[in-house]
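@channel sequence for tomorrow's demo:
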Amino acid sequence: MFELDTTFFILVLIGYLMGSLSTAIIVCRLMGLPDPRTTGSQNPGATNVLRIGGKKAAAITLAGDAVKGLAPVLIGYAFQQTPANLGIIGFAAFLGHLYPVFFSFKGGKGVATAFGAIVGISWMVGLAVLATWLIMAKLFKISSLSALTAAVLTPLYFWLIEANIALLITSIVMSVMLIFRHRSNIRNLIKGTEDTIQ
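structure tokens (generated this afternoon):
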């Protein structure tokens, strides 16, 4: 279960601060692109960067968002943290992406950062999540629907593969928050106006 010592709390802080490094905003600034928070969907994530800056900028953003979820968990491994602790460290990075302290707490939806954290915690769960996203994307060609489906199934994957109650609870909270961040996409899906993958 949890081991609540000074190292753990420092790693949680590191996770949150790393998550707060908004890759979309940084990439857009470095590439001379508009602020993703004020352009397009106004979401600082890879999909919006794709709209305003093209595939290269979006790929860098996607990779950066995933790495900032993965890296804190790997650091946690280096400090021999328990699986439960790793889940909280990964969640802290996810929370940082959603509410970044360096960017007025206006962050993205968290899909790539959550995925990076999940891969760090359990590569098998990460593989199952990725497979779910790819299958849904292939069938329906809607990124948000793919992400929402993967989010709904992530706690089930954690339970079936890891059988760890602490990771199950953490993944449920993360999934609920991720779904909440996609509420505008859900409305568009219901109306049939959600953008498709080109």
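heads up for whoever presents: The radius of gyration is 16 Å.
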